[in-house]
Amino acid sequence: MSELHDLTYLDAIAEGLMVEMERDPNVLIIGNDVGGSFGGAFKVTKRAADHFGPGRVKNMPMTELAFVGAASGMALMGLRPVIEVQFADFISTAFDSIVQYAATTHYRWGASVPWVLRAPSDGGIRSGPFHSQNPEAWFVHTPGLKVVAPATPADAKGLLLAAIRDDNPVVYFESKPLYRSLRGPVPHGDEAIPIGVARTALEGDDLSIITYGSTVHDSLQAAHELSNEGVAVEVVDLRSLKPMDDGAILASVAKTGRALVVHAANRMAGVGSEIAAFIAEEAFADLDAPVKRLGGMDIPIPFSPPLEDAYRVGPPEIAGAIRELMAW
Amino acid sequence: MLEPAAKLNLAYWMRLTRTLDDAVMAMWKQGRGLGGTFSGKGHEAISVGAGYAMGADDVVAPMHRDLGCYLVRGLSAERIMANQLGKEAGVTGGRDANLHGLGDLSLNILGFVSHLPQSMPVALGAAMAFQYRQEPRVALTFAGDGSSNTGLFHETLNLAAVQRAPYIVVVENNQYAYSTPIHEQMAIDDIVVRATAHGIPGQIVDGNDVAAVHEAVAAAADRARQGEGPSLIEAKTMRMLGHAIHDGAEYVPDELLEEWETRDPVVRWETALVEDGLLSPETVSRLHEECREEVEAAIAYAERAPLPGAAGVADGVYAP
Predict the structure, then answer these.
(1) Do B110 and A76 make contact, defined as CB atoms within 8 angstroms?
(2) Does the beta-carbon distance from B319 to A55 stay under 8 Å?
């Protein structure tokens, strides 16, 4: 194990970019406002822009559909572009380039498209309907893409290294509310965290929470509260959504017999729906209670605090759901 | 100026393209085809002329009317026909239909998706990669009059212009996007003005004159290689058959087709070479016969070739 240092979630991503750009001259960054002296709307690319300059950290005009398509062309020629869409909400402007071209190319004619698309996602920071979304389900539904959603600084760095080294298009969902609020130990060095391997964030025998991204932390908070009531909750942080660590989900549910699936995205046809159906199909005999899902309401994400708080899942809702499942 | 050998090569590739195209149309009408397919009849001067003007290290992104470009770039008629019939030996191994997805990086060909303007930014990305690595290579993409109305067309031209990428867009203006005539698609007479809007040089060429297409593309490639940035070439032509095999194109006035028939790019080039003394009526006949034999052999190969096994249906979704 490499030596650790303490980083914010944001600095861990920035360090991951630095590590890969130092290691591989084929890695470059493209996106809106990523370069120059500015270094990105959230400053995630500032270190790289300062160090490597405009040749490797390239500002793009507001042409997401075109520059994501161009990333596919770069990748086909052997480069490894890391694309920043300024907000995950804006990913829809580049949809064809992601799901029609990049996702299908290897299956159709055998050519690799190794890019990473960084999508600053998630809400709770009063940013309104178009700067708060969690659109990961669109991409988990798309064969040919990989999708990751780190919850900790260490995973933010390690999964970014793995995503950049992967020979497939990877959509990397980073949680904006964690950028500066979350600090944690991050290994120095260039060790990647493999895509498709979940992490047990908390061990417990009574109930499994299957989650990812910022709701890992909400789940841990609820689990802590329930421990005072004598309930030992296990929290499985999926880390990767496609491919998903089916084995880790089944092993945890087999142990606890109860499953609660939680994510920040709206619940309707969300990734949690797939996980719940998978548990029902594959682990029915292990279950002592129905599988329960928690997610955002099926509404556009509202701006004003009482409205957004009503929309979002938080520790109280998670604690309530745990109590409900334990009462079975 | 084209050397005599190059002129003869262009005649061969255009005749081979037309012969294969005619054979495919006949097969599908006889019920020997699979799914739908497309004809590029009328587009041979553009697809062959542009493809021939590019170097082996340059990248091309042809579309469904650019059969000639695939052939010129070295994709064999066997592999193309095997793909048309959904065979394992096809470029996509039965994964993608007709001319879709005919990509082969060893030949520097990018495959396309049905969302045709998607090829534009991908080819631009190839050009930006050449720029990044300081390689003297150029990328060329084809696009249609229909595509030129999309946001992606404009996004890509703008991005190419800002980057000064070594990039060429050949717009094949064949007067129709499926059934919609050009005057219902746009309120301008020439698509080339869209290049002007983005600050890049544009040029109109006679898309039925292979020498003109070749000359324009070669000049654009030279400029690109010298760091002078992207170019757009509008090649005006006519789609001589329907959008796809099922489409009788009754919506196209007969007079329009009759007028363009007199400018058939393949016949026109052969006639010019006979007048030049590079070909004779006898050598033209021999050329036709050679192309027929080559096409028949490719079709026989493709018809004999096995279909893919269903066991492999999920292979290759991801690169290992």
Answers:
(1) yes
(2) no
The residue assigned the tokens 């363009």 is: B260
Q: How far is A149 from chain B (nearest CA, A)?
A: 19
Candidates A153, A150, A149, A151; CA nearest to A7 is A153
Question: For residue A45, which amino acid is it?
Answer: T
pTM surpassing 0.80? yes
The H-or-E segment that residue A165 falls in is helix A153-165
The span from the CA of A120 to the CA of B236, in Å, is 44
* Chain B residues lying within 8 Å of A36, measured CB to CB: none
Q: Rounded to an integer, what distance in angstroms lies between the CA atom of residue B4 and that of residue B13?
A: 14
- Chain A residues whose CB is inside 8 A of the B124 CB are 66, 69-70, 73
Orientation of helix B4-29 relative to helix B281-304, angle to 10°: 50
Q: Where are the beta strands (DSSP E) in A41-182?
A: 57-59, 80-84, 116-121, 146-148, 170-175
B295 membership: H or E segment, kind and range:
helix B281-304
CATH topology of domain B4-307: Rossmann fold (3.40.50)
Scan for tokens 């309120």, then name that residue.
B187
Residues 6 or more apart from B40 whose CB is under 8 A from it? B17, B21, B47, B64, B65, B66, B67, B68
User: For chain B, what are the domain ranges?
Assistant: 4-307
How close does chain A come to B126, measured CA to CA in Å? 5
Give the type of residue at B243.
H
Non-local (6+) Cβ contacts of A184 within 8 A are A6, A7, A9, A12, A152, A153, A154
pLDDT in 10s for each residue of chain A, 328 residues: 579 999 999 999 999 999 999 999 999 999 999 999 999 999 999 999 999 999 999 999 999 999 999 999 999 999 999 999 999 999 999 999 999 999 999 999 999 999 999 999 999 999 999 999 999 999 999 999 999 999 999 999 999 999 999 999 999 999 999 999 999 999 999 999 999 999 999 999 999 999 999 999 999 999 999 999 999 999 999 999 999 999 999 999 999 999 999 999 999 999 999 999 999 999 999 999 999 999 999 999 999 999 999 999 999 999 999 999 999 9
Q: Which domains does chain A have, with CATH numbers?
A: 4-187 (3.40.50.970), 199-326 (3.40.50.920)
Q: Which residues contact A327 (CB under 8 A, 6 or more apart)?
A: none
What distance separates the 2 farthest-apart alpha carbons in chain B?
56
Element (H, E) at A259: strand A259-266
Q: Which residues of chain A does B151 touch, with a Cβ-Cβ cutoff of 8 Å?
A: 65
Sign of CA dihedral A35, A36, A38, A43: positive
ω into B117 cis (within 30 of 0):
no
- Which residue among A72, A96, A104 sits closest to B125, beta carbon to beta carbon? A72
Sign of torsion over alpha carbons B63, B64, B67, B70: positive
**How crowded is residue A121: how many other Cβ atoms within 10 Å of its Cβ?**
28
Sheet bearing A207-211, strands edge to edge: A199-202, A233-237, A207-211, A259-266, A292-296
Q: What is the pLDDT of residue A307?
A: 98
